[in-house]
Amino acid sequence: xxxxxxxxxxxxxxxxxxxxxxxxxxxxxxxxxxxxxxxxxxxxxxxxxxxxxxxxxxxxxxxxxxxxxxxxxxxxxxxxxxxxxxxxxxxxxxxxxxxxxxxxxxxxxxxxxxxxxxxxxxxxxxxxxxxxxxxxxxxxxxxxxxxxxxxxxxxxxxxxxxxxxx
Amino acid sequence: xxxxxxxxxxxxxxxxxxxxxxxxxxxxxxxxxxxxxxxxxxxxxxxxxxxxxxxxxxxxxxxxxxxxxxxxxxxxxxxxxxxxxxxxxxxxxxxxxxxxxxxxxxxxxxxxxxxxxxxxxxxxxxxxxxxxxxxxxxxxxxxxxxxxxxxxxxxxxxxxxxxxxxxxxxxxxxxxxxxxxxxxxxxxxxxxxxxxxxxxxxxxxxxxxxxxxxxxxxxxxxxxxxxxxxxxxxxxxxxxxxxxxxxxxxxxxxxxxxxxxxxxxxxxxxxxxxxxxxxxxxxxxxxxxxxxxxxxxxxxxxxxxxxxxxxxxxxxxxxxxxxxxxxxxxxxxxxxxxxxxxxxxxxxxx
Lengths: 166, 350
Known about the structure:
Chain B: It is a multi-pass membrane protein. Chain B: Its EC number is 7.1.1.-. The complex is a heterodimer. Chain A has helices at 2-16, 18-33, 45-53, 88-97, 108-113, 144-159, 161-165, and strands at 76-80, 103-107, 135-137. Chain A is mainly alpha-helical. Chain A has one domain: Rossmann fold (3-Layer(aba) Sandwich). In chain A, strands 1-2-3 form a three-stranded parallel β-sheet. In chain A, helix 5 (108-113) links the parallel strand 2 (103-107) and strand 3. The model of chain A has no long low-confidence stretch (mean pLDDT 84). By secondary structure, chain B is mostly helical. Chain B has one domain (45-349). Chain B is built from 13 helices and no strands. In chain B, helix 2 (24-61) packs parallel to helix 12 (289-310), helix 4 (98-115) runs antiparallel to helix 5 (133-154) and helix 9 packs antiparallel against helix 13 (316-349). The longest helix of chain B is centred in the N-terminal third of the chain and has 38 residues, at 24-61. The model of chain B has no long low-confidence stretch (mean pLDDT 85). Classes of the chains: A mainly alpha, B mainly alpha. The A-B interface holds A 26-27, 29-31, 33-34, 39, 54-55, 58, 60-63, 65-66, 68-70, 72-73, 75, 99-101 and B 55, 59, 62-70, 74, 77, 79-84, 86-91, 236-237, 240-241, 244-249, 252.
């Protein structure tokens, strides 16, 4: 309880500082509007990501189509598919190579909890066991609309950090 | 009225400064600085717009809509991207050679800025009219490869090194056809001064007198500035991002911006050497010369984008073979034919 009150007092002090908050707002606006994803896919969900980039769903409308091959340039990691125990350290390394601020979307039931393979001897039960996941998109695989919705939810989360904290 | 807009502004400022009894050197320096600021503004705004235009054009080619949510028709998309990169962490890996690693993104942007020194933007609008303008362009363009080599070597990453090696190979082999295609233009114009070359195209553009030279130049410049059929330096699917792999945040943004500025320079060089520079076609002088220049520049840029979104990336051996076994002999033959033609033309005239 005490920790929470201290935080809110700090936030009040920050709120008085007009310059800081507006600069934060500008950068959050920019971050939310240019989430460059890292080019990689783990399983069939990646096919749906490709479909979302195609002419019918086209996430380039929101400015998200700049796929970056190098993790140093990317902002967003879409964990699209089953994470096997062999793949898990590589996914973690890719995440650690990304520059801050970085976000993670867990797409599909495999990335959320292991999905249909959760009982298997070689499947990691969910991306949140080793990554800080921001948005979960359920489905097996989720449709492109669902991916777009999740992506826009992440944008909302970035642009309104206060709402998320509460 | 529009024709003398910028020249008139400079003249008015000069007379105002002189009437206020400033030292002549102060006046000169001030006006030169103003020209530099103007050119830099032109460069940055165009590079920002070009990134947006490239994404939009690619979307149209692929029957998509392209960025349209940030600002009207997505025009502020690049602004958002730049701001984000501005606030992103600059990641410096442990084993890089710090000096070259940090210097490369700074130097990469000075080269296109230096190139703008000799470009005739409009009637009487040359920042500095060098006698050896063409030679200057060729010389400064090829310095870029040293900067890319710095970035690739100092990153201490195998992909960066491979990309840098490719950039050197590419620059070495495509510099030849570029120079020979330029040489044929210089032979026709009889001068290496860019304003003279533009003036020589007042009646007939060199694209009609030098169609083969134009094609060679168009292709080779595309390769020199690493646009898509020849973007092996960046080659995403093979070597991550080439020399840019280890850069993040603003360092990467500078490389990104420099790439598009170089692209613009390529279009400007094609415009100046082959499409008559700021000369108005059909005597349509009601549009001012600097606007003609920009219109032609964007026409060439659109052609290059069309190429980019149509063709696939070729392999490194195919690319080098194409340069040494096809473009170079053809450009040599082109020079020979141009020389004979000029000689015959003179004989007939006299």
